[in-house]
Design goal:
Elements lengths: L1 E8 L2 E8 H5 L7 H4 L5 E5 L5 E5 L7 H4 L13 H5 L5 E3 L2
Antiparallel strand pairs: 1-2, 2-5, 3-4
Length: about 90
């Protein structure tokens, strides 16, 4: 299942998508939790009693601003959260 966290406003769509099927088989020991300098991710138990990662509620409406340090408008190559996520479960829409 793909879980989408974020929002759409007049400037664009800002979503972080987490593929929970890939998150379940994480071999990186949930490295995304510590990779994000804003500590935006948290573990949660899904409807099937599997531990997956989610974006914390206070960040879901401010992703464009909170991710700006790692993701400037141009010139970035790797984001700490996506680089730490070895299964490739984390994706940004913008």
């Amino acid at each position: 299942m793909i879980a989408n966290y974020g929002y759409k406003d007049g400037s664009g769509e800002y979503y972080i998508s987490i593929d929970t099927d890939q998150c379940i088989v994480c071999t990186a020991g949930r490295a995304c939790l510590t990779a994000c300098p804003k500590e935006m991710f948290e573990p949660m138990t899904d409807d099937y009693d599997d531990e997956v990662i989610a974006v914390k509620a206070p960040f879901r409406r401010t992703l464009a601003y909170d991710c700006a340090d790692c993701k400037p408008s141009s010139g970035y190559t790797d984001l700490p959260c996506t680089k730490a996520c070895t299964p490739g479960a984390i994706k940004h829409s913008w």
